[in-house]
Amino acid sequence: MRFDVITLFPELFAPFLEAGVTRRAFESRQVDVRLWNPRDFAEGNYRRVDDRPFGGGPGMVMLAGPLARCLAAIREARVADAAPVVLFSPTGRRLDHAGVAQWSAGAGAILVCGRYEGIDQRFIDAHVDMQLSLGDFVLSGGEIPAMALLDAVARLQPGVLNDAGSHEADSFNPALDGLLDCPHYTRPEEWGGRRVPAELLSGHHAEIERWRRERRLETTARARPELIEAARAAGRLDRADEAFLSRLAARL
């Protein structure tokens, strides 16, 4: 799959693409990332990419022209590929695991990283197919959301993680019925006066799996109760799950 990223700061991506386990996906081109700077498509001696907003107000707005010319060059390089254009914006749909799973199985996209007060709405109306958001907060630009999407997609590619089943134990994964993950422990068995739960040391696989299931249920019920309701509505909770949740509710 291929992601073309339109950004005024391509240098921000270099360490991200070269570090950590996900670099395998980028180095192998399983996730092929191409960086494009709209300043290279700006006109005039100053290569201007922004200007003051009509109607007044603070900040600057990115010009539609350089972005459109940059996009046209990407389209030409992709050889008539109908890749969707994605803008990271507070008005976008919140990115979640289901969305990441869809992107990870697709052919890629063209990611637009806005800056300053935003992008001229005429470019958005003419060219943007989808807007995505990481949550209800504002960042200085779209580069961090773009990296978040690329990282989430990369780790789902075959062979990227050391253990092929690692991502199946992630929070929100359908393999865990959409629940949050359970706590994890490693050596030593005692640290700071706290011991590893006895169930994890028992060697009894069924007991370990039940402990992990109950911790997932407990963690989710405390932090994201709406995910419990979603799992219940989807028929993903069995009698043992419901019995545990009833005991848990009595303690809360």
Automatic annotation (TrEMBL):
Mention one GO molecular function. tRNA (guanine(37)-N1)-methyltransferase activity
Q: Where does S-adenosyl-L-methionine bind?
A: G114, L134, G135, D136, F137, V138, L139
Q: Which residues belong to any copy of the tRNA methyltransferase TRMD/TRM10-type domain?
A: 1-229
Main localization of the protein described in the UniProt heading? cytoplasm
Record GO biological process: tRNA N1-guanine methylation
Q: Where in the cell is it found?
A: Cytoplasm
Enzyme Commission number(s): 2.1.1.228
Q: Name one Pfam family in it.
A: tRNA_m1G_MT
What does it catalyze? guanosine(37) in tRNA + S-adenosyl-L-methionine = N(1)-methylguanosine(37) in tRNA + S-adenosyl-L-homocysteine + H(+)
* Swiss-Prot/TrEMBL keywords: Cytoplasm, Methyltransferase, S-adenosyl-L-methionine, Transferase, tRNA processing
Entry-linked Gene3D superfamilies = 3.40.1280.10, tRNA(m1g37)methyltransferase, domain 2
Give the highest taxon in the source lineage.
Bacteria
Give the record's family classification: Belongs to the RNA methyltransferase TrmD family.
Q: What is the stated purpose of this protein?
A: Specifically methylates guanosine-37 in various tRNAs.
Q: How does it assemble?
A: Homodimer.
Q: What is this protein called?
A: tRNA (guanine-N(1)-)-methyltransferase
Q: Which organism is it from?
A: Ramlibacter tataouinensis (strain ATCC BAA-407 / DSM 14655 / LMG 21543 / TTB310)
Organism lineage string: Bacteria, Pseudomonadati, Pseudomonadota, Betaproteobacteria, Burkholderiales
Quote the gene name from the UniProt entry.
trmD
